[in-house]
Amino acid sequence: MNDLLTEQASLGVAGLDDVLNGGLTKGCLFLLEGSPGTGKTTLGLQFLLAGRDAGERVLYVTMSETESELRNTAVSHGWTLDGVGIFELVPPENLLDEAQQQSLLYSSDLELGETTNRIFQAFEQINPDRVVLDSLAEIRLLAQGSLRYRRQVLSLKHYFAQSRATVLMLDDLTSDSTDRTVHSVAHGVLRLEELSPDYGAERRRLRVLKYRGRQFRGGYHDFVIRKGGVKVFPRLVSGEHGEEFERDMLPCPSPQFSALLGGGIERGSSVLVLGPAGTGKSLLVLTFVASAISRGERAAIFIFDEERALFFQRARGVGLDVQGMVDSGRLVVEQVDAAQMTPGEFSARVRELVEEGVRTVAVDSLNGYQAAMPEEQALVLHIHELLQFLNRRGVTTYLTVAQHGLVGDMKTPVDVTYLADTVILLRYFEALGRVRRAISVVKKRASAHEDTIREYSIGRDGFHLGEPLIHFQGVLRGVPSISPGDVESRLLPDRP
């Protein structure tokens, strides 16, 4: 038996074995609980299908769903239940007879005993290695008491343990939420939850409440149910990832940018671009991404705020062929619907691309990312883990945040400036009867940078930086005062 406790039974659910540090311990009983609709049946079927594919005998005992409903669920996911034993435990045919309902012949004692015996008989016919019992709610109703219910679950546990079967019991939590009868009996407990935001699709997450003798990944983990079954996105822990790489200086798109940034951007660092709407934050980031691709690197851009085709069109307007970069396989551009994708799924997608060799990641913008978060504090924690993970893997990250307002005092809806290694600030200002744009670097951890403010323009051939605005005071306020000097030579000419 000790050797058996070292063996693991894979759940067949992408990501969940990672959360459980290998899967379920063979020969033990586990509890999977969650309200109706959270995916218990689907996960239970995946558990059995993984066992069937591994050459094990498997059995699904259902008291809450019919065999036909189970097979329909399998078909909806593209599965076949060939090789899966299904035992549909239905009440006696005459149980619905009004006369029989009032007879002592069908008391809870007799029904509970008969139910247990029929489960044992089905088990002995197949002698399975894996069992799913769906659900404990029916056994709880028949027991009509916490003590009898606990004894019944214990008897099932000892019976299955003698045959060294791995058992997954499902519970729909329809009873008192404080009832933890099975928690102390089970070897491990997993809980599935469904959240209903004010807008957007439902959000599902799971948590491991208990696992005897096993170090598991704690906290909540997002998951989805799609065609093909349940997919879990383990919570990202940056400390578990890291590799050696050279933190060399990456060249900038132009000499002016190199001067402004003190030579360039350090590999593995994060760059935050702040500014009001329309200042060109997305195009500025895209300029750095295009520079990375020209060096032979792979990059990925996640767009939260803009339609993908429009993004491609705007890039062509400044001389950047994004479609050509995508066709070459060097660039991945994904449009993210914050109302549909959970933060856990987003982090998992970023991690997947990094594993495939992406070395530059751009997120445009954090305002859209924030829409996927219930609280700003949770957003900051997610971004912190994500940036730490990318930093440890040598990935250079670019983030944009749209500030509220156009000129004067600006408000940042998501303050993550302390997380970024470099902060670039974009501003509008008025001078000589024109609305102009200014750029400055307000923070750079790894090296010195230029502390001036430069005007920039966006034309058909990209970004252009002017000379430092040394004769202007109050550019960042939006309406600067001009000191005597050759002002015209410091401003950029009109561009097409």
Short précis:
This protein is 30% helix and 26% strand. The chain is an alpha/beta fold.
Characterization of the model:
This protein folds into 2 domains: 4-235, Rossmann fold (3-Layer(aba) Sandwich); 240-490, 3-Layer(aba) Sandwich (Rossmann fold), CATH 3.40.50.300. 30% of the residues lie in helices and 26% in strands. It is built from 14 helices and 24 strands. The protein has helices spanning 16-19, 40-53, 67-76, 98-101, 108-126, 136-143, 146-162, 255-260, 281-294, 308-317, 322-327, 343-355, 366-370, 376-392, and strands at residues 8-9, 24-25, 29-34, 58-62, 84-88, 130-134, 166-171, 188-195, 203-211, 221-226, 229-233, 249-250, 265-266, 270-276, 299-303, 331-335, 360-364, 396-403, 422-431, 434-444, 454-459, 462-468, 472-473, 481-482. The strands form 5 sheets. The protein has a 9-stranded mixed β-sheet with strand order 5-4-6-7-3-8-9-10-11, sandwiched between helices. It starts with 7 loop residues before the first strand and ends in a 14-residue tail after the last strand.
CATH class of the largest domain: Alpha Beta
Tally of strands: 24
- Report the average pLDDT across residues: 87
The level of helicity is 25-40%
Strand content: 25-35%
The largest sheet is: 9 strands, mixed
Second rung of CATH, namely the architecture of the largest domain: 3-Layer(aba) Sandwich
Distance between the termini: 78 Å
Shape: elongated
In CATH terms, the superfamily of the largest domain is: P-loop containing nucleotide triphosphate hydrolases
Rg, Å, rounded? 30 Å
CATH topology of the largest domain: Rossmann fold
Pfam family, one: ATPase
InterPro entries: AAA+_ATPase (IPR003593), Circadian_clock_KaiC-rel (IPR051347), KaiC (IPR030665), KaiC-like_dom (IPR014774), KaiC_dom (IPR010624), P-loop_NTPase (IPR027417)
Organism: Frateuria flava
Protein name: non-specific serine/threonine protein kinase
